[in-house]
Design a protein that fits this description.
By secondary structure, the protein is mainly alpha-helical.
């Protein structure tokens, strides 16, 4: 019986480690995607696109492990919530990775033409979104619901930056229609960064559920 429990604990630790590995990859890709945009570095952008296959493989490994644990171990209470939360977090991280790839694709589109304006708000958005992902995963590792709840104000800040980017670029396009080919990719990037922040918030909500057993999605924070 003890050996079975020890094996179960090792598998839970493996799940924890896989999720953290995915998290490290997506944090790096968020940063590099915006660096590729800022530096107009198509090579760096392509590296992000190539690395996405590794992230997809890790998500499948997380899925398989979670399903195996649910099917063979019949976990109860806290362990059950940990496994189901891990399953959802893996999905959110994979989607964040996809968004980073899309940002990299927009960076390639803009790499061979002058930037419409100096980038200010988009790098701020990216830094904040990356930190949100990191803190959400830190809350997961520490089983810290209050740390997870600390993400809510940052989500509002990211939304504010998105609105600033949108308003400024729409104003530019209204004054010069030729600016659209360079403005629209930046608007799309700002929306992707907002979605990354949303996924980080999803992870934080899942952490609260894992720790406290409370479902807070779609409700007041």
């Amino acid at each position: 019986m003890a050996d079975g429990r020890e094996h179960f604990q090792r598998e839970l630790q493996k799940l924890n480690d896989l999720i953290l590995k995915m998290g490290g990859m997506v944090e790096k890709n968020i940063f590099n995607s915006v660096e590729a945009l800022k530096k107009q570095d198509a090579r760096l952008a392509r590296e992000i696109m190539t690395s996405d296959d590794n992230l997809d493989r890790l998500e499948l490994e997380v899925d398989d492990l979670c399903l195996e644990l649910l099917a063979t171990q019949q976990p109860m209470a806290v362990d059950l919530r940990f496994i189901t939360t891990g399953l959802r977090i893996g999905s959110d991280l994979e989607r964040i990775g996809d968004l980073a790839v899309d940002i990299a694709q927009r960076a390639i589109e803009l790499a061979d033409q002058p930037l419409l304006k100096p980038l200010v708000d988009i790098p701020k958005m990216a830094e904040l979104a990356e930190k949100m992902v990191h803190r959400a995963l830190d809350a997961f590792v520490k089983r810290d619901a209050e740390l997870a709840r600390g993400l809510w104000p940052d989500e509002d800040k990211v939304d504010h930056y998105r609105d600033l980017v949108y308003d400024e670029l729409v104003d530019m396009m209204s004054k010069d229609t030729k600016a659209a080919s360079r403005a629209i990719p930046l608007i799309i990037i700002s929306r992707h960064l907002e979605r990354i922040a949303d996924h980080a918030t999803n992870i934080a909500e899942d952490v609260v559920y894992m720790v406290e057993g409370k479902v807070i999605k779609h409700g007041p924070k």
